[in-house]
Amino acid sequence: MNIQAMMKQAQKLQQEMLKTKEEIDAKIFPGKYSFVEVSVNGKKEVLKITFDKDFKFDDTDIEMLQDIIVIAVNDALKKVDAEIEEKLGKYGSGLSGLM
User: Fold this and answer.
1) Where are the beta strands (DSSP E) in 1-99?
2) What is the pLDDT of residue 1?
3) What is the tens place of the pLDDT at every residue in 57-75?
4) Fold designation for 3-98
5) Strands 28-33, 36-41: parallel, antiparallel or unpaired by DSSP?
6) Can you tell me whether residue 43 is helix, strand or coil?
7) What are the residue ranges spanned by the domains of the chain?
8) Alpha-carbon gap, residue 84 to 82, rounded angstroms
9) Which of 17, 40, 56, 81 has the fewest beta carbons closer than 10 A?
10) pTM score of the predicted model
């Protein structure tokens, strides 16, 4: 294979990777723990935090609430990481300089 063909193949691969990354960035990933649900996008930006409307808490529950939010956010972020690995892992880490 000549250099020109290799470059063309690399450009095609880069375009596929960018398209896949854009799809992941646009996807919404839910995270849930107990009465808290969060939504993050593929860029790992928190978009929304929702509490179960039936749950009532008072000021003494603030520490617990903070812990539950952290767990729910981390749950959503793990889903983003899994999606990235599933969809982009096939390209191999050696190609990360192309993106």
Assistant:
1) 28-33, 36-41, 46-51
2) 64
3) 777 788 888 899 999 999 9
4) Ybab; Chain: A; (3.30.1310)
5) antiparallel
6) coil
7) 3-98
8) 5
9) 56
10) 0.74
Exposed (0-12), middle (13-18) or buried (19+): which is 31, by Cβ within 10 Å?
Answer: buried
Contact, 52 vs 65, CB < 8 A? no
Inter-axis angle of helices 3-26 and 62-88, nearest 10: 150
With residues binned 3-state (H G I as helix, E B as strand, rest as coil), the percentages for the chain, rounded to 5, are 65, 20, 20
Separation of alpha carbons 83 and 13, rounded Å: 18
Tokens encoding 20: 């896949």
Whole-number Å distance between alpha carbons of 19 and 4: 23
